[in-house]
DNA sequence: GTCTATAAGTTGATAGAC
DNA sequence: GTCTATCAACTTATAGAC
């Protein structure tokens, strides 16, 4: 307590966390240009000069927020392995993605905004780690298809579809809410959304019987 | 030619069109806050005071761009009528949406940005015309499902999925391009994307045989 | 209708006391 | 490490000559 130098930056770590949390919220609402340091500082409960003390510039704050988000994105445990069950792997991925979208909508929005503006800060990540990951998993999926374990679906585009189908509930929540007649989405909405996406994708990949359609007789 | 007052504002109409085209591009790239009147003026090839002469304020320019886009959105001829063939109606809608996305990606991006920021300008449209449209078409779709003409899919969420699946190719083109190893998407990419979305959705709605999966024997 | 010059306001960033 | 005061740059919008 009296020691002038405790473990390196315990206070620093805490304050940086507070700032990043506030920044994620503000960047999600207003985008990079629209967000102001004053607004972030207000939300973080400290004068804006402190933000500059900890991060230097506005871009650095933004980069830190993005780095935080990319960790979330990559931490998703995916089960796309040759021996896995395609249906289980896809279900698990969709559920994980949807849970992340529901729990961290602001993270999704900051990411969406960055992409929408041409990804000036995370272009390297997209062309590097993300591209490699998709390439890897696509090999696995092509293997499943060749083995007749799922319908012929373009693996890369399947990933685009999965991202779009799940993240749309955070990025465009305003639109979804307006159409459903609510101001924002609750747990029940997300449960329904998850069921819907699971059904659509699993059936779309031939991993589910096309139930609810009248069973055609076996012999034409 | 010498008449001081020809048909009302022929020049005006032309110049407003030039400005709106430039504005759509700039707003798509930079968002509302990020875009500057100077940049729009430069792209439109006129001094920025002219923009104020024609539209008054920056917000008015933005509103005009959005109004232009909403026309496009609603002009989509949809064939969701009780007697229509579900498969044909869905195919047509997907193809139209994807064509619009490919031909006017900037329009999609401006719209996406507006939604992402909480739709401050078009909230009324979302809660009014759009909600009514979706409600209407959902009744039709529920009729198809009750008649056993397609699989049980939540109609409202189906629309969210269709919008997400198609517009993602414009809004997040940077991500798609990075994963596919290109700097931007060409006609071949859009053809492939359309095929993919058609397959996924039609099969997902039970409107297509789950081909490419080994046919299970008729009797278990 | 078109253009240059400029006013008025906002924002990122820093200086310097504590 | 924290805070107040302030600077410098930028942006919207307008005034007023042509």
From TrEMBL, chains A, B:
InterPro entries, per this entry? Homeodomain-like_sf, HTH-type_TetR-like_transc_reg, HTH_TetR, Tet_transcr_reg_TetR-rel_C_sf, Tscrpt_reg_YcdC_C
Pinpoint the HTH tetR-type domain residues: 13-73
UniProt cross-references to PROSITE patterns, sorted A to Z: HTH_TETR_2
Molecular function, one GO term = DNA binding
Q: Which GO terms describe its biological process?
A: negative regulation of DNA-templated transcription
Q: Which Pfam families match?
A: TetR_C_3, TetR_N
As annotated, the DNA-binding region falls at 36-55
Coiled coil (residue ranges): none
Source domain of life is: Bacteria
Q: What keywords were assigned to this record?
A: DNA-binding
- Keyword Cytoplasm, does the record have it? no
The protein's name: TetR family transcriptional regulator
What does UniProt list as this organism's lineage? Answer: Bacteria, Pseudomonadati, Pseudomonadota, Betaproteobacteria, Rhodocyclales
């Amino acid at each position: 307590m009296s020691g002038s130098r405790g473990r390196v930056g315990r206070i620093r770590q805490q304050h940086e966390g507070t700032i990043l949390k506030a920044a994620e919220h503000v960047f999600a609402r207003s985008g990079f240009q629209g967000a102001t340091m004053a607004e972030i500082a207000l939300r973080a409960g400290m004068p804006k000069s402190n933000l500059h003390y900890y991060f230097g510039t506005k871009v650095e704050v933004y980069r830190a927020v993005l780095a935080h988000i990319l960790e979330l994105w990559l931490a998703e445990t995916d089960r796309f392995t040759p021996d896995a069950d395609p249906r289980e792997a896809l279900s698990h991925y969709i559920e994980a993605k949807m849970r992340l979208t529901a729990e961290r909508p602001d993270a999704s929005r900051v990411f969406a905004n960055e992409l929408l503006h041409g990804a000036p800060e995370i272009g390297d990540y997209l062309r590097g780690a993300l591209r490699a990951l998709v390439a890897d998993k696509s090999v696995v999926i092509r293997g499943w298809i060749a083995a007749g374990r799922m319908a012929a679906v373009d693996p890369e585009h399947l990933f685009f579809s999965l991202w779009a189908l799940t993240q749309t509930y955070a990025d465009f929540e305003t639109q979804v809410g307006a159409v459903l007649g609510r101001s924002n989405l609750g747990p029940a909405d997300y449960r329904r959304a998850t069921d819907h996406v699971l059904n659509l994708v699993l059936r779309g990949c031939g991993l589910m019987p096309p139930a609810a359609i009248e069973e055609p007789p076996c012999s034409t």
